[in-house]
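The pair is quoted verbatim below.
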Amino acid sequence: MNPKVLMIVGDYGEDLEIYFPFQALSLLGFQVDAVCPQRKKQDKVKTAVHDFRDGDQTYMESRGHDFTLNAEFPVDPSQYVGLVLPGGRAPEYLRLHEEVLVIVEYFLKEKKPIVAVCHGIQLLTAVGGIEGRKLTCYPACKFEVTKQGGVYEKVGYDEVVVDGNIVTSPAWPGHANAFREFVKLLGVTITHK
């Protein structure tokens, strides 16, 4: 049986931040279970595409694809080796579900690998336990990090911050770097011949 990675998603999560990890981790042989509170396996969540334009004060948002959930919620977090927290607008309301917070807290306490991209940090800040941790996120979320005692690291959108079991990136341009670090934490070594 393939090792399992959990990905918590919801309506208007960022399109690339959902599809990329699902496909990339599946390619590497992980079973990626995508779940959403109040939704069942085979239900769909709507995604949003966030695009960055020079000179704009924030990202532009447009409707993305429908993403099909492949597992039931709630889950037993002890069955998973890692946790993926995509950004977009979904984390702002996913953090209102106690079952979601219990899962995120489990991964923090057990020091299992977590990757949070963009607004995915909101699920970490909602449970706390990040005091003194070096983290990054979409800049609009930096105050949530610092108010919870985390150390906000300003990096480029294509960069990452790794602190122990947590990998963070400000946005989807950092996917290659974020998931390279995440899979290292999962014990995967990628070599070229």
